[in-house]
Known about the structure:
heterodimer; A: 118 residues; mainly alpha; 2 strands; B: 89 residues; 0% strand
Amino acid sequence: xxxxxxxxxxxxxxxxxxxxxxxxxxxxxxxxxxxxxxxxxxxxxxxxxxxxxxxxxxxxxxxxxxxxxxxxxxxxxxxxxxxxxxxxxxxxxxxxxxxxxxxxxxxxxxxxxxxxxx
Amino acid sequence: xxxxxxxxxxxxxxxxxxxxxxxxxxxxxxxxxxxxxxxxxxxxxxxxxxxxxxxxxxxxxxxxxxxxxxxxxxxxxxxxxxxxxxxxx
Lengths: 118, 89
């Protein structure tokens, strides 16, 4: 194996490990709010590793530019999607796990308007 | 098949197993946001699978397919989240 292939394998392995751990966490964690936090790892770190592996393996400027654009897209959109899902779940009253100790948003959210009281 | 291609194929197998776990959450999920989140993660898995396939077969045209799947996954998740949020009474 050449050096390029070793670097490609290392980056792809890091990405796949993050994605696999996110899937395991999504199955095992107790409630929706913790599961969304697990998904964010797959959407940012896991995808970044795999796409960087593609860029390193090809060594082509056009492919590398496309990969960096895709990574930027994922880094921008994955937290936005996770936050929107979390807010929709909080506003519709999805139950928390019983071992939750603190809810910082309790009483601060105007449920009818869907906005924070300032 | 070289050793490198076999190892990348093994990584594709790990991603496939992880897709099964996501599908289990998609079927079990007690609430609608749970299922939407499982769908979002499933789209991420599809992107990773196609990216590993590009490494094995050197078909760079599939990169555009990755772009389409990424945009569709994000837009679908946002649409479902807005639908849940606006549809509450």
